[in-house]
Amino acid sequence: MATCVRLLATQTAKARQSDEDYVAKTRQLFHDNRPALPRFVVQGETVTPILSPSKFYREMKDHIKKAQKSITLAALYLGHTENDLVEALSEALRSRPGLKVNILLDSLRGTRDSGKGSSASLLYPLLKAYPNQVRVSMYHTPDLSGLLKQVMPPRFNEGIGLMHMKVYAFDDTLIMSGANMSHDYFTNRQDRYVMFKSMDISEYYCDLVKAVSDLSYGLQDNGDTFQLKIGDGVPDPDASYDTTLHPLIQMGPLGIRQDERVTLSVLDHILHDQELEGSAKVFITSGYFNFEKRYSQSIIHTKAANVGLIAASPEANGFFNSAGISKYIPPAYTLIEQRFFNDAKAAGNADRIKIEEYARKGWTYHAKGLWVYPPDSDLPVMTTIGSPNFGYRSIVRDLEAQLFLVTSNLGLRKSLHEELSSLRKYAYPVTDETFKAPERQVPVWVGGASRAIRTML
Questions:
Q1: pLDDT tens-digit profile of 307-342?
Q2: Is 269 among the catalytic positions?
Q3: d(Cα 18, Cα 21) in Å, to the nearest integer?
Q4: Does residue 171 carry a catalytic annotation?
Q5: Choosing from 55, 66, 69, 164, which is the catalytic residue?
Q6: Catalytic residue selected from 166, 281, 354, 368
Q7: How does pLDDT run across 346-398, given as a tens digit for each residue?
Q8: Which of 80, 140, 149, 171 is catalytic?
Q9: Beta strand segments in 304-381, E
Q10: CATH annotation of 42-237
Q11: Which of the four CATH numbers 3.40.1440.60, 3.30.870.10, 3.60.21.10, 3.30.70.260 does domain 242-456 have?
């Protein structure tokens, strides 16, 4: 019996030593990365996991009541129904005039109106009542600016970038979590929440939130309502840089549809935003005239922009006069172009949508991209450059990379306009007569075949 006890004790000691060795090795990983990584030391007893959303909520309210000097709350948003939480903050501020509250939210999500209010509208009365104690900041990603900001619709624009940190600090207590401050996160949306009792780590995260707040818009009292204002000395992304680049990829076979979503969103907004005075101009070019259905429908039914399309003439198609059955590929594109042309007329947009064909002797045409001109402007402010052809192949079958460029730089805008003009120099208008020419007549069987293999064109 004594031998068994000694053996068990030996095995237990070895297991404990093995764990300690692994911990030491793990710590060494972080030590090897110093001084880039900050390091704090605490006792394990000061770290408490919180296991449920309701317990998380109770801890939040309890620490709001107890905080004497500072409360820092950072999250994507505050639910517009969280009146009890705001009232708890109000009571704490009222009873302790020296208490400071710093709240950091995302500006896109925090100002999105649900129809019953937003995070900003909920916090505005608190800010108005305690202007010297409360700071509310709204971070706005610098990646969403200029024309891209104008054309990106609400909610979708949140995909460009958000303030996604979740930090809840009360004096010397910190709760780190992935949960936002809203009803579902306090009731039936399970997340993780870990509480730390350490002034050092709490102050570190408060300083981090403050640093981001200093680079954010501030919620300010504007009489009967609120406004967002950037702080003094904070660089406006539009002022600091005059050109933004937004790289996108499309890998249909791998389930990555980024470029498709963004391009459709941008096109839909530009082509159908009737709030702007005047009509924008959009030029789209592809060596292969075969718009995916959603692109095609958005263009055909444009209400807010004039559209110029530049396609390859049959002679400028790389398959022109090729051997075998591939020589019928240019006629297939002619048929697709003719259908589009007729659909635009049927939609009453013959005057708004114009098609041109590139025809330069001895040359083929493979250019692709789009240019956007604001209303009453002769210079573009946006273009795309990359591999997509706006067709089925690009969306469904191939791997594509494209870059959206938005600029206010006059020299660059002139250069982009000159680029487009150089392409259009060899482009000729498409009319009804174009499709009546003898050389543009398409064999009947090509029509059926083109529909069958359209996703391969």
A1: 999 999 988 887 676 666 667 788 888 888 889 999
A2: no
A3: 5
A4: yes
A5: 164
A6: 166
A7: 999 999 999 999 898 988 887 788 888 888 889 888 888 877 888 887 788 77
A8: 171
A9: 305-312, 353-358, 369-373
A10: 3.30.870.10
A11: 3.30.870.10
